[in-house]
Amino acid sequence: MLKRLGTVLHTTPSGYIVAKIEEEQVPPLNTVVYDEDMNRVGVLLDIIGPVKSPYAVVKPSSREVRVEKGVKLYYRPPSPRRRRARKPARAAKGARKPVKHRDRKQGEQKRRRSRGGKQPRRGERRGGGGRPRGRRGSK
């Protein structure tokens, strides 16, 4: 279950714990770190140093946490996330339904009927677009 993180080198004046990482694979940040007695020490804050021999900076969980030099630190590797079957997206409350093409056509027909079957006004959307027909032949 637990993997070894490394060995404590020292504690900084600000209270952070610096440990030499012994694993080849660097653990992810914000991983909880434990000591040899399975007491929670803190959280992995940062990875510093060269790539070949990195160091871990652990932020203690409280000011009372004291770790001596040479203590081994451990961490629990994150478990892979289980995939769930996707559910269809739920519409938010008050969200408008997407307009279907057929609804748009029906709306246009409804507008025409309300205007007595006349052609749409200039700038109004209609099937062919362009100028209204009433102005075509007149000068």
UniProtKB/TrEMBL annotation:
Where does the signal peptide begin and end? none
Q: Known InterPro entries for this protein?
A: Gar1/Naf1_Cbf5-bd_sf, H/ACA_rnp_Gar1/Naf1, Transl_B-barrel_sf
Where is region (Disordered) located? Answer: 73-139
Please name the GO terms of the biological process aspect recorded for this protein, alphabetically.
pseudouridine synthesis; ribosome biogenesis
Q: Enumerate composition-biased segments (Basic residues).
A: 79-120
The record, for Gene3D superfamilies, names: Probable tRNA pseudouridine synthase domain
Protein name as catalogued:
RNA binding protein, Gar1-type
Where does this protein come from, organism-wise? Pyrodictium delaneyi
